[in-house]
Amino acid sequence: MDRRTLLRATVAGAGGLALPFTAWPAAYAAPAQNATGPYGALRAADANGIQLPAGFTSQVVARSRQTVPGTSYVWHDAPDGGAVIPNGTGWVYVSNSEVSSSAGGGASRLVFNASGQVTGASRILSGTNQNCAGGKTPWNTWLSCEETSTGRVWETYPLGGSAVVRPAMGRFKHEAAAADPVRQVIYLTEDETNGKFYRFIPATWGNLSAGTLQVMRAGSATSGSFTWADVPDPDGSPTATRNQVSGAKSFNGGEGCHYADNTVWFTTKGDNRVWQVNLATSTYELAYDDNLVSPGTAPLTGVDNVTGTASGDLYVAEDGGSMDICLITPDDKISVFLRVTGQGSSEITGPAFTPAGNRLYFSSQRGTSGASSGGITYCVTGPFR
Asked: Which top-rank group of organisms is this from (predicted)?
């Protein structure tokens, strides 16, 4: 019996609580190991240079510095973190631009109808710096995070409204954000070699204008228990937030962040790891480590953005590596889901699924040119489980 099944049996025996199988991704018996993926082997690259399993197809939906087809809007440079937000008639895909304010930093949106056709595109945030990743909220806003030493979180409104800076969420080298509606907090990663893992507790859930910033405290091991401690000065001046709390646990280059079912996962690019934080038990462990993979070589390097599906699968994108999006299943197996060919000087960013779960959006930040002006945003459609 794997640990996930054991936990289900334990809970059911203790309280007679019946939960669906997909409600237990927190029970991963980390770290993941190599295996054949649920969709089989990759086929030869398609016309877009993407290798996919049988039954899946790709299309280009936008290119940097080119007008988005069907609109008059020119897509931004260096597309990075992204998310899909339903709008009642279809959905919106939001995407950050990881360039300076003078070069057009901020975020944009693509609007799709129920058939997946682009019906609009526009800017939702301007004048900001190095907007790398971020995260969506349960109230359908997009948190766009600045990856600078005094970076801020901007709350944007893809369904309409003006962006607002959220200084209470701290000033540091922000990377990604993930909302936890159960505990009513936002988790935040920090892209520093000694970065920290934070959570923001809003004074009122749904309003990020005020609240408390906390940092994880834990030992130096790759698993164990943790606590939270208040950050005395979220403004990070003159002392950086990561240096304010004794015993705060360091992580090597925090990147993507994803919450589901009492668990939050986040990635660290500096050591090619995926961390799993079990919120119900206040413990943490490794969901993936490229030094602990067998048999064969590790499929996932340059670990970066992460998202998940209702089935409990995690999709983790590479910054460099083989330009893969890898899949980690609930039974701790890892495989390559797709590979972008001919773009070795780029990185994969912004993976996000539509509400129906049958379309995956993502970008190649620098495309075939290796420059910020060469970004390409894709959609992959197919029989996702």
From this structure: Bacteria
